[in-house]
Amino acid sequence: MTEDTTTPLPRLIIVSGQPGSGKTTLAHRVAREIGCPAVIRDEIKEGMVHAHGPGFQPAESDPLTMRTYPLFFECLQLLLAAGVAVVAEAAFQHRLWHTGLGPLMDLGELRIVRCHTQEHTMMARRRIRMSSEPTRAAHADAATLTPEPEWTPLHLDRPTLDVDTTDGYRPGLEAITAFCQA
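Predicted structure:
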């Protein structure tokens, strides 16, 4: 009888949603619960802006944003290739992100968590974080103060869980982490 010595693929948990949908908070919570790193696209850009120094002016598709996208996927690829499970968080709108995720599908077992909330809650969260989080100066947040009618959630042929973050989590955190680990 031969023993199966194949190493299982690490889990890649994608947490997505519109700005203000609660995805960053949930991504950090899930990563803590299951014991793996969280790679947050906005935090990578914030680190670039910090290294850039004063005077950076954010804009949609500014040079640092454009450098952030490939770096985000390179970080994920490096971790997955090393056998590390990871939570990846970004505003994964399907048309913008599915091509970057394609090469990662052979490196990790993908689970998608899509965050959503009521529009007025999302807009309120966006305004609050603009005024209370200094690191948000790295982002062109003023452009996100209106609803995005063209938003298309990430949809791939992988297990997907929709989470309402309006007041806590529905389903609850225990069910979310169970889905991520299944």
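Summary: Helices lie at 23-34, 41-52, 63-81, 94-101, 119-132, 173-181.
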